[in-house]
Amino acid sequence: MTVPRFQARVLVRLRPSVLDPAGEAARGAAARLGVEGISKLRIGKAVELEIEAADAAEARSRVELLSDRLFANPVIEDWSLELLDS
Amino acid sequence: MSIGVIVFPGSNCDRDVLWATQGCLGLPTRRIWHEETDLSGLDAVVLPGGFSYGDYLRCGAIARFAPALRSLVEFTAEGGRVLGICNGFQVLTELGLLPGALTRNRDLHFICEDVNLTVVSARTTWLQNYSAKGHLTLPIAHGEGRYQCSEDTLKQLQDDDAIALRYGNNPNGSVDDIAGITNPKGNVLGLMPHPERACDPATGGVEGRAMLQALLN
Predict the structure, then answer these.
(1) CB distance from A73 to chain B under 8 Å?
(2) Domain range for residue A44?
């Protein structure tokens, strides 16, 4: 029996209260490119991974642990998780 | 009495610290590879500046899992002195030994210059030698030194008298001009400026000496 494999995508974002200077710089560049009307631009990270686990619940709990303890720093970042069957 | 300097892959100020503590101040110092776990016989540990593990993910995020740092948590709990400089400060916040986080400088520049610092608290021995004068000048060299924390944490830092140093002219956008903080007990100091680069008259300034001297006082 093969162990089910899941694909996960974790999006890590700076918390809304934390200044995102890279996002601000990109917003400035967007205006110089001539793209107008951007009122908000924030840059985060996407982590894509594959994980083998007995079931979706186990896969989710393991990726949640990773997100909380490694991918994001809860002092400055929030994260969200999408889990898909492979 | 001796000092340990933890060396991660990507640390680049470990030799500067060694030169400052041992070469300039004559304090016995040994370097400790990040995979070692034996901190016995040490009275103080320095986490040096640099780019530990390439600073991948976030500054200090991966260093946090180094075997040497598991021992460091115990060492700290037993009252050992710990000084985190620049990347070392970032590691201490990731490790949870100090609150808050260090984020990208407000203006995105890597800033390399001398800064004027105000001694906010001489509660701990780290800064007692500076308290009479009230200020000092040290070099900074960082791209991610903007100290961030929640309002509750800031209040806690203020209540604990744990803000050690403030920038005179905030270069990076840090909350409350914070350049360095201590833990409530006072045995851990983290700061973005580099005291070890201000110890040898040949390379400019000796104002960092007293801070490193405090490692073994």
Answers:
(1) yes
(2) 5-85
Share of chain A above pLDDT 90, in %: 92
The model's pLDDT over B117-164, given as tens digits with 9 standing for 90+, comes to 999 998 999 999 898 789 999 999 999 999 999 999 999 999 999 999
Mutate to test the interface with A, among B148, B149, B181 (most CBs of A within 10 A): B148
Counting the structural domains of chain A, the total is 1
Q: Which domains does chain B have, with CATH numbers?
A: 3-216 (3.40.50.880)
Active site residues of B: 86, 194, 196
Which positions in chain A touch B148 (Cβ < 8 Å)? 18, 75-76
Q: Which residues contact B21 (CB under 8 A, 6 or more apart)?
A: B3, B5, B27, B29, B46, B196, B212, B215
Enter the tokens of residue A31.
Answer: 């205006």
Q: What three-state secondary structure class fits B132? A: coil
Interfacial A residues in 15-44 facing B (CB < 8 Å): 18-19, 21-22, 25
ipTM: 0.83
Give the three-state DSSP class for B133: coil
